[in-house]
Design brief:
CATH architecture of the largest domain: 3-Layer(aba) Sandwich
Strand order of the largest sheet: 10-11-12-13-14
Protein name: Restriction endonuclease
Structural class: alpha+beta
Helix content: 10-25%
Shape: globular
Number of domains: 2
Length: about 240
């Protein structure tokens, strides 16, 4: 695993970034090559081309598209980590290819249909919201759903086998930054991420979640989560 010292250009805080390893279809771990000495940049506008980079598996030589390395600073800035360019097969160095959405980062497997009816937990406090989300994940078929002791700096509220979840119980719509931070934490842990919100999502947060294939749910005070994007509908649908 390659690591790189990173200084946030916004708050000047120092971090140590470790690039995550992704499983190549051949089974070998693959990492994106970091470009040492190049400055990190704050992400203020996203495009599909900028969000994926080409990496080469050292075991089989396969070239594939993987997420652009990013770091979410506690100050709120999302930083893009520079990588060494890798030419795609059959292309000269420096020639760009159009990224395609990887098909090897699947949504987690859920319980087989049919499911019994979901029994919600009435939400009166922020802790109730987390409890309702935990019950819903268990209903979907996730195993070992637990709440970390004390909310960590990553703001992850729930963990399960192959999954992390964040629950926003504030009265404001969930922001783009919160969705992106969940995505980065999920990538670092090689698991999937799911978001629950009481007040819904900002338009750019919903759009970003669709591109990152992050299921979004909205909960009302009865404690019944409702899917609000395609990945969430797929997660809930029988046989998903």
């Amino acid at each position: 695993m390659e690591s790189l010292p990173v200084r946030c250009p916004v708050c000047r805080r120092d971090h140590m970034y470790a690039t995550p390893a992704y499983p190549c279809p051949c089974g070998a771990p693959t990492t994106t090559p970091l470009l040492r000495g190049a400055p990190v940049t704050r992400i203020t506008h996203r495009t599909w081309t900028d969000d994926w980079v080409t990496a080469r598996c050292r075991a089989c030589g396969r070239h594939d598209q993987w997420p652009q390395p990013e770091l979410c600073c506690p100050c709120g800035a999302v930083l893009r980590i520079p990588v060494r360019p890798v030419a795609a097969p059959g292309r000269a160095p420096g020639t760009a290819s159009r990224p395609v959405r990887p098909s090897h980062i699947p949504l987690p497997r859920t319980a087989a249909a049919p499911r019994p009816g979901f029994r919600p937990l009435t939400i009166r406090t922020a802790q109730d919201a987390v409890g309702a989300a935990a019950l819903y994940l268990k209903w979907l078929g996730y195993r070992e759903v637990v709440q970390p002791a004390g909310r960590p700096s990553s703001r992850i509220d729930l963990r399960a086998a192959g999954l992390i979840a964040q629950v926003d119980s504030t009265t404001r719509p969930t922001a783009l930054r919160d969705v992106e931070c969940l995505w980065l934490n999920a990538l670092s842990a090689s698991v999937s991420g799911v978001f629950f919100s009481l007040a819904g999502y900002a338009p750019d947060a919903r759009q970003r979640a669709d591109g990152l294939v992050i299921p979004l749910f909205v909960m009302d005070l009865t404690g019944t989560p409702q899917p609000v994007n395609g990945p969430a509908e797929e997660l809930v649908s029988p046989g998903a």
